[in-house]
Amino acid sequence: MAAVNENAIQQHLNFSSCGEEDSSDSSVEDWVPVSVTLISPSSACRTPRVQRHRTRSVTVSPPAPTSPIPYSAWRKLRLCDSPSTPKSLLSKSALSYSSSKPCHSQRVLCLPNAPDRVPAVNINPFTPDTVRRNSRHCKRKNLRSDGDDDDGCRSKETQTSSEDESYFLPSKRPAVPALMLSRYESEFLELGRIGVGEFGAVYRCVKRLDGCMYAIKRLRRPLAGSANEQLALKEVYAHAVLGHHPHVVRYYSAWAEDDHMIIQNEYCDGGSLLDVLTEKEEQGEFFREPELRDLLLQVSMGLKYIHSSGLVHLDIKPSNIFICHRPSSSSGGAGDSEEEDDAYPSSGVVYKIGDLGHVTSISSPQVEEGDSRFLACEILREDYTHLPKADIFALGLTVLLAAGAPPLPQNGDEWHSLRQAQLPSLPQELTPPLRNLTQMMLDPDPAVRPSASALCRHPVLRRERAGKLATQLRRELNVEKFRTAMLERELQEARLAATSPQQSPLTSGRATSGAGAGSDSGSGSLSRPGRRLVGRNVARSMSFGCLGH
Ligand SMILES: Nc1ncnc2c1ncn2[C@@H]1O[C@H](COP(=O)(O)OP(=O)(O)OP(=O)(O)O)[C@@H](O)[C@H]1O
Ligand SMILES: [Mg+2]
Description:
Elements: H1 2-17, H2 26-29, H3 41-44, H4 48-59, H5 71-81, H6 87-96, H7 104-110, H8 128-144, H9 150-158, H10 162-168, H11 183-187, E1 188-196, E2 200-207, E3 213-219, H12 228-242, E4 251-257, E5 260-266, H13 273-282, H14 289-308, E6 311-312, E7 321-325, H15 338-343, E8 349-353, E9 360-361, H16 377-380, H17 387-402, H18 412-418, H19 432-441, H20 452-457, H21 459-499, H22 505-515
Helix pairs in contact: 8-9, 14-17, 14-21
Bound molecules: adenosine-5'-triphosphate and magnesium ion (MG).
């Protein structure tokens, strides 16, 4: 509830700020707007929906040179329409509509026509995709003209290529400028729906400002008075408290719009674990042991973090575990620290816990039961003394599903027998250590189940990580061996060059003076003409004289 009130306050604050928004452009301010009463800020700001309607009706007729709408009124309207958008950003976006910004009045005139020339979203030059595209572009340029210097290439990189634009832009851009739309519409470009759940729908969007992809979850029903209100708020509260962890879907922002909660989260390009399992099942496949161990270890890491924050998830299941594919050549950022490197497996698949709608506190729980198929027996009995172990139970069942277990029962005898330590039959034989570990995770007594922290340290799971570490080390060792071999070859070449009898004494003298005492061939050493053995990157003329002495 607090979040909604806060939002309402925020809207109110922003609306009231409309009146104080000024324009430095006195020439435009001096206009006497004919229809200014229609969009009077003081009345329009109180009811954003009505106001949005009104502004739309105004924009239908594009502001011609004789437009009655002054620049200041446009800016005020935009602030009202997008309650939580910082004014500075909006005014920046207004500037972007003017390609050459000759004067403020022309800015108004350009608004409806200019969008054909500006991209609907910014292109973030740091995303792996853009870096890849730019380097491809750069290589192509280099191939085409060998003579091009670096600067030429670099200046091209900063330009928005048509390839980049077509990647992000819809084929036909809407005529209504973004500034007339809601925060969702003005800040994000929707690329498609990626999921529908009980809660609402999730959309893949690009944020216009930073050019990055996000998953935006929109509550299906209006927030006020709906049973989903608590779930929506729980999700936002939990995300805000949890902060960042590589195995928890990252949260960026949340706001209410038209009484619907909207949550902006990290976009996981691999979809959910359920999507992957469904696809595998269709092909008659399932996760093999190394993949099972990897899944179990990564989700345990996320759970360890959640539990150590004093919270429990209570809805762990394949549809709430998301997958990110780590780019093969990371251009920095996440995963660079030692700790994060440990979190990112060499397999390139990162599992993240998402959908925090059922999260509750361990110390003062308000339990909203999750999916009954994954529910631990003690939760049904309202015994909340070992809440984190309910997540472990659900994770155990998730692993069994990934191993190819048949669909889980929602209730009935089968449901009970699963909770009496009777594991379902699997299409593959698990090794005894993993089988025992899974069995322990599903123990009817929550105290017997391992904690998330114990799972993270468990040798059965760490073995996998240790194996991967060994592979990684072997790869690094090979690289080092190759480097050493190259250096040895260079050294060999240098020795040969130094002892070559074809060199004239004159050249030899020059080489020796350039190399100084660096040559190991003794007196009378020779060198290839034009090639210095030592100090190749240092300018030849060097003075060691002391300044002023
Ligand atoms: N961050 C994300 N990245 C990629 N896809 C996502 C993301 N969040 C949600 N989805 C997609 O949307 C679907 C529904 O999302 P979510 O689980 O958050 O909502 P829900 O209404 O609680 O669904 P359910 O009842 O199935 O748990 C997911 O199964 C997934 O396919
Ligand atoms: Mg979900």
